[in-house]
Description:
The chain has helices at residues 30-35, 53-63, 78-97, 110-130; strands at 6-8, 11-13, 18-23, 39-45, 67-72. The chain is an alpha+beta fold and 137 residues long. The strands form two sheets. The protein has a three-stranded antiparallel sheet, with helices on one face.
Amino acid sequence: xxxxxxxxxxxxxxxxxxxxxxxxxxxxxxxxxxxxxxxxxxxxxxxxxxxxxxxxxxxxxxxxxxxxxxxxxxxxxxxxxxxxxxxxxxxxxxxxxxxxxxxxxxxxxxxxxxxxxxxxxxxxxxxxxxxxxxxxx
Length: 137
């Protein structure tokens, strides 16, 4: 993360594409919390960003929305809340941009097939023994 914008993976987002808004954080803290705008909300519009189209489509598909908003008001410092909100945004983008590893098809081994069939026969025998004996008339 830099002052210029946000970097995730091999892509970076210029600061002009991030909307930052500041508000009073509320809660305990007295006059400082009530008068200083230390809470930070960062909004990033994926659909209208300068990211490559394939990356944008992938992010929108994974997140299920075309814009992301993060909020931070834990600290009394606007600077720290801003860093926390940017870090959260970076984490969301990195998670969404990861592609799932392709599954390699595997075959069950002969021993596992034999074991499964053996257990199947054993269960069948147990269930067979639960039945009432039939009279051979």
